[in-house]
Amino acid sequence: MKYIPEPKTMVAIKDLSLAAKMTLDNFMAGLNRSRVKGEGTEFSQYRQYMSGDDLRNLDWKVLARTGRHYIKQSEPEQNIAVHLMLDASASMKHDCGSYQKIDYARYLAACLALLAYRQGDKIGLSFFNETEIKRIMPQQHAQQLQIIYQSLSALQANGRFENREGFKWLLGAKQKELMVFITDFYEHDDEIMRLIKLFVALGHEVVMLHLMAANELDGSFKSYDALEDAETGEIVVLGSISPEKHKQLVESYLSRSRQTLLENKVHYCMVNANDPPEKALREFLIYRNSLTRR
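Structure (tokenized):
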């Protein structure tokens, strides 16, 4: 049985195109086996039957085998522009063990770019930090993938996410885009939330992939008594709280984050940066396919 290798194995591969291809091939193999097991898990060749669909396109073999009605599609109903947006501020240097969050973000973005490309979508890339804002306009050709892979490979995390003046030229998209924001959601003054609200107000669809490391989720910071804020240099003393209390605090924080984003019409998904990216890829694919059926 195929499976997606652990992130520590994949991020160690310097060739992002190879890492993305290995991951996607395994992900799609698993998706093919499970696509008729539940709503929203199908890829572009199948979707659930809806009233008014031509019965000649019904997959009768799937119906006989599962009792569920699926329509065969040789092509996606609609292609969209997928814009990957990466938070490259210094907090993305957070240690996930043998790699940093920014390494996982690069790897995840490469996988999403390849997945979108295989769906026939245009793909673009932007990343942000204190000193640099870069935008690659969404296009649909093989060279675009290589441009994105190269940009991701060269990406470094530094500074704070607050270059507000530089954001202005990101707002000139002439078409509606599906913006996939990969971030640790670490803010000083709601700067990330304000930017996301602006994208939504301009009519874009926004998905947030909120990266959390396993040590953040369970509070396992080894024997450290304090941590240094990567963006401000502030020393944060770790209190002596129980694992149960830490879990409650994290769950409360994630719940508030999810609720705030949902209230602002943002699709939210928390991603454990120590797990394979299957959950993030599936969430993206489900949401992306829902847009093509609107």
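The beta strands are 46-48, 70-72, 81-87, 122-128, 133-139, 177-183, 205-212, 226-228, 235-237, 266-272. Residues 35-44 have pLDDT under 50 and may be disordered.
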